[in-house]
Amino acid sequence: MEPGEQDLRQEIAELKRRVARLEAALPAGSTEETAWVEAQGPPPAPAAKEDLETRIGSRIFNRIGIVAVLIGVAWFLKIAFDNRWLGAVGKVSAGLIAGLGLYAWSERFGRHGYLAFSYSLKAVGAGLLYLSLWAAWSLFHLLSLPAAAAAMILVTAGTGVLAWKRESELLAFYAAIGGYLTPLLLSNGQNHEAPLFSYLLLLNGSALALLAVRPWPRLALGAFLATTTYAIGWYTVYYTE
After folding, report:
1. Which of 202, 190, 200, 198 shows the shortest CA–CA distance to 226?
2. Residue 171 · residue 119 · CB < 8 Å
3. pTM value?
4. What is the greatest pairwise CA distance in the chain?
5. Tens digits of residue pLDDT in 57-94
6. Which helix (H) or strand (E) holds 51?
7. Residue 160 C-beta-side C-alpha neighbours within 13 Å
């Protein structure tokens, strides 16, 4: 064997011994992990944190602008009401349009990831719808009691369906608040026990149906407390032997 070939064999043998020692020193699974990294490529770099200017521009000023617009609209409506620019139909229509507008506007923020703020806008919009319908029935006598009740039930049902589709317990909570406040808004001081408890039965059945597909036990607790409160209140005021 020639001297050069013998030296080459010795170097190869030494390299094999070094590789064996390195593999023995590595923890278990390191070889597989290394191979996986080589096959998949380097892990993605972490997303850069949002800097202060972006956070202020996209969130804080954005929300300040929304509040300013809401205050401006409310101030305009107050001036219009005080100066009698709007009649009864105009006032109710303005409230309904504002409520529906907030509903539609909230979708824009929901698509950009501001879910809690979007749901809050929906709650404000639903509140405007409830109050407008109440005013149309109680103050201006534009709607009959059954028509106002049907419209409020429609608002509650729409919010509940949206909560189910968006899987939002917060939105379901807002829908429940509006639903259980409806009998108070439509109360005329008389005893309507059959419509009252029929409505509560329908509302509680809807809540149970929602609970069957969404694990929201706090919604069941709220429904139970609201129904119990109505039952105690009716018993205290209207029940006789």
Report:
1. 200
2. yes
3. 0.67
4. 121
5. 555 655 666 667 667 766 776 777 677 777 888 888 98
6. none
7. 24
